[in-house]
Amino acid sequence: MERFTISLDVALAKEFDALIAQRGYRNRSEAVRDILRGHLERSRQSGQESGHCIANLSYVYNHHERELAERLTGLQHAHHDLTVSSLHAHLDHDHCIESVILRGPTAAVRRFAEALMAERGVRHGSLNLVTAVVEDAGARHEAGHGHDHGHDHDHGPGHPWHVHYRPRS
Known about the structure:
By secondary structure, this protein is an alpha+beta fold. It has helices spanning 10-23, 28-47, 68-78, 106-117, 138-142, and strands spanning 52-62, 83-90, 95-105, 122-136, 163-167. β2 and β3 (95-105) form a beta hairpin. The longest helix is centred in the first third of the chain and has 20 residues, at 28-47. It starts with 9 loop residues before the first helix and ends with a strand.
């Protein structure tokens, strides 16, 4: 671990300490690390559309909207290469919330999320995206460093099960 020292004026230090207490950090170092990670991630996202990401798309929609549920499901199936999993919950007699886990090229994930949130009847959509490094896990599995779930890992080169998305930072 590398150490560095910063100087803060008294008012900024008091405000920062209040934030630390409010968010439940144990010390200033933990808070500074999280702030730096967040800032670095925003910086990466602002200039990188060609990389890969992992993301959570959450949205609320009115399930009485004509054929909306079918359109949303159809969009997810049409983008099965990006869609990892989804969670659906009923909020009341009219509204549902869905949370969809996505991974893939950042530009494709953003386009899919924007298209889904633009569907008539979708409300309160939000995309939480984290840039990722894509690794070919085939060699790791062959070397015995992968996860063995009781099935054969030899799916051939380039098979999607041999790709790992590792979050940056």
